[in-house]
Design a protein that fits this description.
de novo design (two linked rop proteins)
Length: 110
């Protein structure tokens, strides 16, 4: 959901900001892609933690790009709040998965 929303909103950024557009889209998509990889490596504790850590980092990166987009007035306050709220929810879920692997992974002990 967040990646699609970021994609749609970033389509309205000025074309001269191609770098910002590319980075915010990449980081938001990377959260989803790494989460898919987490599922694929859930039998391997180190890989599970690694992929989740990357997803969390990419989510933080997306938040930084949202800050830049808001500061440059490419998104309004409501869009900023909505996307930040989504990102925070995603972050909480990812952190929960990292801290409670037995609920999501195929192993019991870290």
């Amino acid at each position: 959901m967040q990646a699609r929303s970021v994609y749609r909103i970033s389509a309205n950024f000025p074309r001269v900001e191609y770098s910002m557009i590319d980075q915010i889209r990449r980081s938001s998509r990377s959260v989803c892609a790494n989460l898919a990889e987490v599922y694929g490596v859930r039998s391997y504790p180190r890989h599970y933690r690694s992929k989740l850590s990357i997803a969390i980092a990419e989510n933080y990166e997306t938040q930084v790009w949202l800050d830049f987009a808001f500061d440059t007035k490419y998104i309004d306050k409501n869009q900023y709040r909505e996307l930040c709220q989504l990102s925070e929810e995603v972050g909480k879920l990812l952190t929960y998965m990292l801290n409670n692997p037995a609920r999501f992974a195929n192993w019991k002990v870290l």
